[in-house]
Amino acid sequence: MAAQSRIPGFRDESPSGRRALAAECAGVPSDALEAWESGGLGLEQADHMIENVVGTFGMPIGVATNFTVNGSDVLVPMVTEEPSVVAAASNAARIARERGGFRTSSSAPIMQAQVQVLDVADPDGARVRLLEAAEELILLANDQDPKLVSLGGGALDLKVRTVEGRNDRYVVVHLVVDVRDAMGANAVNTMAEAVADRVGQIAGGRVLLRILTNKADMRLARARAVFSAEALGGAEVVGDLVHAAKLAEIDPYRAATHNKGIMNGVTAVVLATGNDTRAVEAGAHSHAVGARGQYTALSHFEVDRDGDLVGTLELPMPVGLVGGATTVHAAAQAAVRMLGVGSASGLAEIITAVGLAQNFAALRALATEGIQRGHMSLHARNIAISVGATAEEIPEVVGRLIADRAIRTDRAEQVLADIRSSGS
Ligand code: MEV
Protein backbone atom coordinates (compact mmCIF):
# COMPACT_ATOMS: atom_id res chain seq x y z
CA MET A 1 0.00 0.00 0.00
CA ALA A 2 1.26 3.51 -0.78
CA ALA A 3 1.64 5.64 2.33
CA GLN A 4 -1.15 8.01 3.30
CA SER A 5 -0.02 10.98 5.36
CA ARG A 6 -3.35 12.79 5.83
CA ILE A 7 -4.69 11.25 9.02
CA PRO A 8 -7.65 13.20 10.41
CA GLY A 9 -7.95 12.89 14.19
CA PHE A 10 -4.38 11.60 14.55
CA ARG A 11 -3.51 13.99 17.35
CA ASP A 12 -6.54 13.01 19.40
CA GLU A 13 -5.41 9.38 19.64
CA SER A 14 -3.30 7.94 22.44
CA PRO A 15 0.38 7.29 21.65
CA SER A 16 -0.33 3.59 21.00
CA GLY A 17 -3.38 4.50 18.89
CA ARG A 18 -1.21 6.88 16.87
CA ARG A 19 1.42 4.17 16.39
CA ALA A 20 -1.20 1.77 15.10
CA LEU A 21 -2.61 4.40 12.74
CA ALA A 22 0.86 5.44 11.57
CA ALA A 23 1.76 1.82 10.82
CA GLU A 24 -1.48 1.33 8.91
CA CYS A 25 -1.10 4.56 6.95
CA ALA A 26 2.58 3.89 6.21
CA GLY A 27 1.68 0.39 4.99
CA VAL A 28 3.98 -1.40 7.44
CA PRO A 29 3.04 -4.29 9.77
CA SER A 30 1.42 -3.20 13.02
CA ASP A 31 4.42 -4.34 15.09
CA ALA A 32 6.97 -2.48 12.91
CA LEU A 33 6.83 0.62 15.10
CA GLU A 34 6.66 -1.18 18.47
CA ALA A 35 10.27 -0.27 19.31
CA TRP A 36 9.01 3.25 20.04
CA GLU A 37 6.95 1.99 22.98
CA SER A 38 10.10 1.40 25.05
CA GLY A 39 12.58 3.66 23.26
CA GLY A 40 14.18 0.82 21.31
CA LEU A 41 17.51 0.75 23.13
CA GLY A 42 18.30 -1.80 25.83
CA LEU A 43 20.97 -1.16 28.41
CA GLU A 44 23.21 -3.91 27.09
CA GLN A 45 23.11 -2.50 23.59
CA ALA A 46 23.68 1.02 24.89
CA ASP A 47 26.72 -0.27 26.76
CA HIS A 48 28.24 -1.33 23.43
CA MET A 49 27.54 1.99 21.74
CA ILE A 50 29.57 4.45 23.82
CA GLU A 51 31.85 4.40 26.85
CA ASN A 52 31.09 4.59 30.57
CA VAL A 53 27.40 3.93 29.98
CA VAL A 54 25.22 4.46 33.03
CA GLY A 55 21.79 4.19 31.43
CA THR A 56 19.73 5.45 28.52
CA PHE A 57 18.09 8.83 27.94
CA GLY A 58 14.50 9.06 26.74
CA MET A 59 13.17 11.63 24.27
CA PRO A 60 9.73 11.91 22.68
CA ILE A 61 9.30 10.72 19.11
CA GLY A 62 6.36 12.20 17.21
CA VAL A 63 5.02 11.69 13.70
CA ALA A 64 4.53 14.65 11.38
CA THR A 65 1.57 14.18 9.07
CA ASN A 66 0.46 15.66 5.72
CA PHE A 67 3.81 15.44 3.93
CA THR A 68 3.85 14.79 0.21
CA VAL A 69 7.31 14.55 -1.31
CA ASN A 70 7.68 14.19 -5.07
CA GLY A 71 4.07 13.12 -5.33
CA SER A 72 4.18 10.42 -2.63
CA ASP A 73 2.82 10.72 0.87
CA VAL A 74 5.25 10.12 3.69
CA LEU A 75 4.88 10.04 7.46
CA VAL A 76 7.84 11.66 9.16
CA PRO A 77 9.35 10.53 12.50
CA MET A 78 10.71 13.41 14.58
CA VAL A 79 12.64 13.24 17.84
CA THR A 80 12.66 16.56 19.67
CA GLU A 81 12.23 17.99 23.13
CA GLU A 82 10.65 21.18 21.75
CA PRO A 83 6.87 21.62 21.79
CA SER A 84 5.21 22.89 18.57
CA VAL A 85 7.85 21.49 16.22
CA VAL A 86 5.90 18.42 15.07
CA ALA A 87 2.60 20.30 14.87
CA ALA A 88 4.21 23.17 12.95
CA ALA A 89 5.81 20.81 10.41
CA SER A 90 2.48 19.01 9.93
CA ASN A 91 0.62 22.30 9.42
CA ALA A 92 3.15 23.57 6.92
CA ALA A 93 2.97 20.28 5.02
CA ARG A 94 -0.82 20.54 4.92
CA ILE A 95 -0.59 23.96 3.29
CA ALA A 96 2.16 22.82 0.88
CA ARG A 97 0.14 19.81 -0.22
CA GLU A 98 -2.55 22.10 -1.67
CA ARG A 99 0.02 22.98 -4.35
CA GLY A 100 1.40 19.47 -4.76
CA GLY A 101 3.64 19.21 -1.70
CA PHE A 102 7.42 19.25 -1.72
CA ARG A 103 9.62 18.68 -4.75
CA THR A 104 13.10 17.51 -3.90
CA SER A 105 16.37 16.59 -5.58
CA SER A 106 19.93 15.86 -4.54
CA SER A 107 23.46 15.52 -5.80
CA ALA A 108 25.30 12.19 -5.73
CA PRO A 109 26.22 11.10 -2.18
CA ILE A 110 29.71 12.49 -2.29
CA MET A 111 31.86 13.07 0.77
CA GLN A 112 35.40 14.34 0.92
CA ALA A 113 38.35 13.54 3.16
CA GLN A 114 41.26 15.92 3.70
CA VAL A 115 44.92 15.01 4.03
CA GLN A 116 47.04 17.87 5.33
CA VAL A 117 50.73 18.01 4.38
CA LEU A 118 53.20 20.22 6.26
CA ASP A 119 56.73 21.38 5.55
CA VAL A 120 56.48 21.17 1.78
CA ALA A 121 59.30 23.06 0.06
CA ASP A 122 57.42 23.61 -3.18
CA PRO A 123 53.65 23.55 -2.50
CA ASP A 124 52.71 24.41 -6.09
CA GLY A 125 54.99 21.72 -7.46
CA ALA A 126 53.65 19.25 -4.89
CA ARG A 127 50.11 20.05 -5.91
CA VAL A 128 50.80 19.19 -9.52
CA ARG A 129 52.79 16.03 -8.63
CA LEU A 130 49.87 14.84 -6.51
CA LEU A 131 47.42 15.47 -9.34
CA GLU A 132 49.70 13.51 -11.67
CA ALA A 133 49.44 10.61 -9.20
CA ALA A 134 45.66 10.87 -8.87
CA GLU A 135 44.94 7.51 -10.46
CA GLU A 136 47.42 5.67 -8.22
CA LEU A 137 46.03 7.37 -5.09
CA ILE A 138 42.40 6.69 -6.07
CA LEU A 139 43.21 3.01 -6.63
CA LEU A 140 44.94 2.86 -3.26
CA ALA A 141 41.91 4.45 -1.60
CA ASN A 142 39.51 2.06 -3.31
CA ASP A 143 41.55 -0.98 -2.18
CA GLN A 144 40.29 -0.16 1.34
CA ASP A 145 36.63 -0.66 0.50
CA PRO A 146 35.93 -3.22 -2.23
CA LYS A 147 32.33 -3.55 -0.96
CA LEU A 148 31.65 0.15 -1.54
CA VAL A 149 33.25 -0.11 -4.99
CA SER A 150 31.12 -3.18 -5.80
CA LEU A 151 28.03 -1.13 -4.94
CA GLY A 152 29.01 1.52 -7.49
CA GLY A 153 30.68 3.88 -5.02
CA GLY A 154 34.26 4.55 -3.98
CA ALA A 155 36.89 7.22 -4.50
CA LEU A 156 36.21 9.09 -7.74
CA ASP A 157 38.55 12.00 -7.81
CA LEU A 158 41.37 13.81 -6.14
CA LYS A 159 41.62 17.55 -5.67
CA VAL A 160 44.61 19.36 -4.27
CA ARG A 161 44.59 22.80 -2.69
CA THR A 162 47.26 24.92 -1.13
CA VAL A 163 46.00 26.68 1.97
CA GLU A 164 47.86 29.66 3.23
CA GLY A 165 48.04 30.90 6.80
CA ARG A 166 50.08 33.83 8.12
CA ASN A 167 53.32 31.85 8.37
CA ASP A 168 52.46 28.51 6.84
CA ARG A 169 51.37 27.09 3.57
CA TYR A 170 49.82 23.63 3.62
CA VAL A 171 49.15 21.25 0.80
CA VAL A 172 45.70 19.75 1.34
CA VAL A 173 44.57 16.75 -0.65
CA HIS A 174 40.85 16.10 -0.98
CA LEU A 175 39.72 12.57 -1.71
CA VAL A 176 36.32 12.74 -3.36
CA VAL A 177 34.30 9.62 -2.52
CA ASP A 178 30.87 8.38 -3.50
CA VAL A 179 29.68 6.76 -0.26
CA ARG A 180 26.37 5.43 -1.62
CA ASP A 181 23.92 4.73 1.23
CA ALA A 182 26.35 5.30 4.08
CA MET A 183 26.90 8.54 5.93
CA GLY A 184 30.43 7.81 4.87
CA ALA A 185 32.64 9.09 7.67
CA ASN A 186 34.26 5.71 8.31
CA ALA A 187 34.75 4.96 4.64
CA VAL A 188 36.46 8.24 3.82
CA ASN A 189 38.52 8.37 7.01
CA THR A 190 39.88 4.90 6.31
CA MET A 191 40.76 5.93 2.76
CA ALA A 192 42.44 9.14 3.93
CA GLU A 193 44.60 7.22 6.39
CA ALA A 194 45.49 4.66 3.73
CA VAL A 195 46.76 7.18 1.19
CA ALA A 196 48.49 9.43 3.71
CA ASP A 197 52.04 7.99 3.55
CA ARG A 198 52.08 7.99 -0.23
CA VAL A 199 50.69 11.55 -0.30
CA GLY A 200 53.50 12.63 2.05
CA GLN A 201 56.12 10.97 -0.15
CA ILE A 202 54.85 12.56 -3.34
CA ALA A 203 54.46 15.99 -1.76
CA GLY A 204 57.81 15.77 -0.01
CA GLY A 205 56.34 16.77 3.33
CA ARG A 206 54.93 15.47 6.59
CA VAL A 207 51.31 14.37 6.76
CA LEU A 208 49.31 15.52 9.77
CA LEU A 209 45.48 15.45 9.60
CA ARG A 210 43.61 12.71 7.74
CA ILE A 211 39.91 13.23 8.25
CA LEU A 212 36.65 13.90 6.42
CA THR A 213 35.38 17.44 6.01
CA ASN A 214 31.95 18.13 7.44
CA LYS A 215 31.59 20.91 4.90
CA ALA A 216 29.83 18.35 2.73
CA ASP A 217 29.17 20.75 -0.10
CA MET A 218 29.29 18.03 -2.75
CA ARG A 219 26.42 16.20 -1.05
CA LEU A 220 23.55 18.63 -1.34
CA ALA A 221 19.83 18.08 -0.99
CA ARG A 222 17.18 20.54 -2.14
CA ALA A 223 13.51 21.07 -1.45
CA ARG A 224 10.96 23.41 -2.98
CA ALA A 225 7.33 24.07 -2.15
CA VAL A 226 4.59 26.51 -3.04
CA PHE A 227 2.35 27.86 -0.28
CA SER A 228 -0.84 29.38 -1.62
CA ALA A 229 -1.53 33.04 -0.88
CA GLU A 230 -5.12 32.12 -0.14
CA ALA A 231 -4.14 29.65 2.58
CA LEU A 232 -1.83 32.26 4.05
CA GLY A 233 -4.54 34.91 4.25
CA GLY A 234 -3.63 37.02 1.23
CA ALA A 235 -0.93 38.99 -0.52
CA GLU A 236 -0.02 41.08 2.50
CA VAL A 237 0.90 38.06 4.59
CA VAL A 238 2.87 36.62 1.66
CA GLY A 239 4.74 39.93 1.38
CA ASP A 240 5.47 39.96 5.10
CA LEU A 241 6.83 36.40 4.95
CA VAL A 242 9.18 37.45 2.17
CA HIS A 243 10.35 40.41 4.28
CA ALA A 244 10.85 38.10 7.25
CA ALA A 245 12.98 35.76 5.15
CA LYS A 246 14.86 38.66 3.59
CA LEU A 247 16.10 39.89 6.95
CA ALA A 248 17.74 36.49 7.46
CA GLU A 249 19.50 36.84 4.10
CA ILE A 250 21.07 40.16 5.02
CA ASP A 251 21.50 40.02 8.78
CA PRO A 252 23.56 37.27 10.46
CA TYR A 253 21.76 37.80 13.79
CA ARG A 254 18.46 36.91 12.19
CA ALA A 255 20.05 34.26 9.94
CA ALA A 256 21.21 32.26 12.96
CA THR A 257 17.66 32.07 14.34
CA HIS A 258 16.10 31.47 10.94
CA ASN A 259 18.50 28.57 10.30
CA LYS A 260 17.90 27.27 13.81
CA GLY A 261 14.24 27.00 12.85
CA ILE A 262 15.21 24.95 9.79
CA MET A 263 17.36 22.71 11.98
CA ASN A 264 14.44 22.17 14.38
CA GLY A 265 12.96 20.01 11.63
CA VAL A 266 16.16 18.67 10.15
CA THR A 267 17.79 17.56 13.40
CA ALA A 268 14.58 15.92 14.65
CA VAL A 269 14.48 13.56 11.65
CA VAL A 270 18.25 13.05 11.60
CA LEU A 271 18.08 11.96 15.24
CA ALA A 272 14.98 9.80 14.74
CA THR A 273 16.80 7.86 12.02
CA GLY A 274 19.92 7.35 14.14
CA ASN A 275 22.06 9.67 12.05
CA ASP A 276 24.81 12.05 13.16
CA THR A 277 23.11 15.33 14.10
CA ARG A 278 26.40 17.19 14.60
CA ALA A 279 27.66 16.28 11.14
CA VAL A 280 24.48 17.60 9.54
CA GLU A 281 24.54 20.73 11.68
CA ALA A 282 28.22 21.44 10.91
CA GLY A 283 27.49 20.97 7.21
CA ALA A 284 24.46 23.24 7.32
CA HIS A 285 26.09 26.11 9.16
CA SER A 286 29.27 26.00 7.08
CA HIS A 287 27.08 26.07 3.96
CA ALA A 288 25.28 29.11 5.33
CA VAL A 289 28.39 31.19 4.90
CA GLY A 290 27.87 32.83 1.53
CA ALA A 291 30.36 33.72 -1.16
CA ARG A 292 31.13 37.05 0.50
CA GLY A 293 32.01 35.30 3.75
CA GLN A 294 28.87 36.38 5.60
CA TYR A 295 26.64 33.95 7.47
CA THR A 296 23.24 33.99 5.77
CA ALA A 297 19.91 32.18 5.40
CA LEU A 298 19.93 28.64 4.05
CA SER A 299 16.47 29.07 2.52
CA HIS A 300 14.85 31.60 0.22
CA PHE A 301 11.28 32.79 -0.13
CA GLU A 302 9.82 34.69 -3.08
CA VAL A 303 6.48 35.32 -4.78
CA ASP A 304 5.60 33.50 -8.00
CA ARG A 305 3.51 34.81 -10.91
CA ASP A 306 0.31 33.63 -9.23
CA GLY A 307 1.10 35.57 -6.08
CA ASP A 308 1.84 32.40 -4.12
CA LEU A 309 4.84 32.00 -1.86
CA VAL A 310 7.69 29.81 -3.14
CA GLY A 311 10.14 28.44 -0.59
CA THR A 312 13.42 26.74 -1.45
CA LEU A 313 16.10 25.17 0.70
CA GLU A 314 19.44 23.64 -0.25
CA LEU A 315 21.96 22.31 2.23
CA PRO A 316 24.49 19.51 2.72
CA MET A 317 22.76 16.39 3.97
CA PRO A 318 25.29 13.71 5.00
CA VAL A 319 22.94 11.01 6.27
CA GLY A 320 23.02 7.27 5.75
CA LEU A 321 20.86 4.21 5.91
CA VAL A 322 23.64 1.70 6.57
CA GLY A 323 26.12 1.62 9.42
CA GLY A 324 26.09 3.43 12.73
CA ALA A 325 23.08 3.74 14.99
CA THR A 326 20.72 3.60 12.01
CA THR A 327 21.51 -0.09 11.63
CA VAL A 328 21.62 -1.14 15.28
CA HIS A 329 19.02 1.02 17.02
CA ALA A 330 15.55 -0.53 16.84
CA ALA A 331 13.79 2.84 17.16
CA ALA A 332 15.85 4.25 14.28
CA GLN A 333 15.06 1.18 12.18
CA ALA A 334 11.37 1.70 12.89
CA ALA A 335 11.74 5.32 11.74
CA VAL A 336 13.36 4.25 8.47
CA ARG A 337 10.64 1.65 7.92
CA MET A 338 7.84 4.13 8.45
CA LEU A 339 9.53 6.59 6.08
CA GLY A 340 9.74 3.83 3.49
CA VAL A 341 12.98 5.21 2.06
CA GLY A 342 15.30 2.92 0.12
CA SER A 343 18.34 5.15 -0.27
CA ALA A 344 20.35 7.69 1.68
CA SER A 345 19.49 10.32 -0.94
CA GLY A 346 15.78 9.61 -0.50
CA LEU A 347 16.18 10.14 3.23
CA ALA A 348 18.27 13.29 2.71
CA GLU A 349 15.59 14.77 0.47
CA ILE A 350 12.75 14.11 2.91
CA ILE A 351 14.79 15.67 5.73
CA THR A 352 15.33 18.75 3.59
CA ALA A 353 11.60 19.00 2.88
CA VAL A 354 10.96 18.86 6.62
CA GLY A 355 13.53 21.63 7.16
CA LEU A 356 11.73 23.81 4.65
CA ALA A 357 8.33 23.05 6.20
CA GLN A 358 9.63 23.94 9.65
CA ASN A 359 11.17 27.16 8.40
CA PHE A 360 7.98 28.19 6.61
CA ALA A 361 5.90 27.45 9.72
CA ALA A 362 8.16 29.59 11.92
CA LEU A 363 8.17 32.49 9.46
CA ARG A 364 4.41 32.32 9.14
CA ALA A 365 3.90 32.41 12.88
CA LEU A 366 6.45 35.19 13.32
CA ALA A 367 5.05 37.31 10.50
CA THR A 368 1.49 37.00 11.78
CA GLU A 369 0.44 36.23 15.36
CA GLY A 370 3.94 35.72 16.80
CA ILE A 371 5.39 32.49 18.03
CA GLN A 372 4.18 32.49 21.62
CA ARG A 373 0.50 31.89 21.00
CA GLY A 374 1.07 28.55 19.29
CA HIS A 375 3.63 27.58 21.89
CA MET A 376 1.24 28.48 24.66
CA SER A 377 -1.68 26.47 23.33
CA LEU A 378 0.52 23.40 22.94
CA HIS A 379 1.96 23.93 26.36
CA ALA A 380 -1.55 24.31 27.76
CA ARG A 381 -2.62 21.14 25.97
CA ASN A 382 0.29 19.21 27.49
CA ILE A 383 -0.62 20.54 30.94
CA ALA A 384 -4.27 19.60 30.42
CA ILE A 385 -3.24 16.06 29.48
CA SER A 386 -0.86 15.85 32.43
CA VAL A 387 -3.68 16.58 34.90
CA GLY A 388 -5.85 13.86 33.36
CA ALA A 389 -8.20 15.81 31.04
CA THR A 390 -9.94 13.52 28.56
CA ALA A 391 -10.04 14.16 24.79
CA GLU A 392 -13.45 15.90 25.26
CA GLU A 393 -12.23 18.00 28.19
CA ILE A 394 -8.90 19.12 26.68
CA PRO A 395 -10.23 21.96 24.45
CA GLU A 396 -12.15 23.54 27.34
CA VAL A 397 -9.22 23.27 29.77
CA VAL A 398 -6.81 24.68 27.17
CA GLY A 399 -9.17 27.54 26.31
CA ARG A 400 -9.58 28.57 29.93
CA LEU A 401 -5.85 28.32 30.75
CA ILE A 402 -5.03 30.57 27.82
CA ALA A 403 -7.84 33.03 28.59
CA ASP A 404 -6.65 33.24 32.22
CA ARG A 405 -3.02 33.51 31.08
CA ALA A 406 -2.24 30.91 33.73
CA ILE A 407 -0.78 27.88 32.03
CA ARG A 408 0.08 25.99 35.19
CA THR A 409 -0.66 22.58 36.57
CA ASP A 410 -2.43 23.88 39.70
CA ARG A 411 -4.74 26.07 37.59
CA ALA A 412 -5.40 23.18 35.18
CA GLU A 413 -6.39 20.96 38.10
CA GLN A 414 -8.81 23.64 39.32
CA VAL A 415 -10.30 24.18 35.87
CA LEU A 416 -10.75 20.46 35.35
CA ALA A 417 -12.41 20.09 38.72
CA ASP A 418 -14.77 23.01 37.85
CA ILE A 419 -15.67 21.49 34.48
CA ARG A 420 -16.39 18.14 36.06
CA SER A 421 -18.43 19.54 38.94
CA SER A 422 -20.50 21.76 36.67
CA GLY A 423 -20.91 18.91 34.18
CA SER A 424 -19.99 21.28 31.34
C1 MEV B 1 12.39 28.35 17.74
O1 MEV B 1 12.86 27.10 18.15
C2 MEV B 1 12.68 28.57 16.27
C3 MEV B 1 12.34 29.97 15.75
O2 MEV B 1 13.01 30.96 16.53
C4 MEV B 1 12.81 30.03 14.31
C5 MEV B 1 12.70 31.39 13.69
O3 MEV B 1 12.75 32.41 14.42
O4 MEV B 1 12.61 31.43 12.45
C6 MEV B 1 10.87 30.26 15.88
From TrEMBL:
A GO molecular function held by the record: hydroxymethylglutaryl-CoA reductase (NADPH) activity
Source organism, top-level taxon: Bacteria
Enzyme Commission number, as recorded: 1.1.1.88
Keywords: NAD, Oxidoreductase
InterPro entries: HMG_CoA_Rdtase, HMG_CoA_Rdtase_bac-typ, HMG_CoA_Rdtase_cat_sf, HMG_CoA_Rdtase_CS, HMG_CoA_Rdtase_NAD(P)-bd_sf, HMG_CoA_Rdtase_sub-bd_dom_sf
Pathway terms, separated by semicolons: Metabolic intermediate metabolism; (R)-mevalonate degradation; (S)-3-hydroxy-3-methylglutaryl-CoA from (R)-mevalonate: step 1/1
Gene3D superfamilies, A to Z: 1.10.8.660, 3-hydroxy-3-methylglutaryl-coenzyme A Reductase, Chain A, domain 2 (3.90.770.10)
EC top class, as a word: oxidoreductase
Catalytic activity: (R)-mevalonate + 2 NAD(+) + CoA = (3S)-3-hydroxy-3-methylglutaryl-CoA + 2 NADH + 2 H(+)
One Gene Ontology term from the biological process aspect of the record: coenzyme A metabolic process
A Pfam family per the record: HMG-CoA_red
SUPFAM superfamilies associated with the record: NAD-binding domain of HMG-CoA reductase, Substrate-binding domain of HMG-CoA reductase
Family stated for the protein in its record: Belongs to the HMG-CoA reductase family.
NCBIfam families, per database record: HMG_CoA_R_NAD
Protein's name in the database: 3-hydroxy-3-methylglutaryl coenzyme A reductase
Organism: Prauserella rugosa
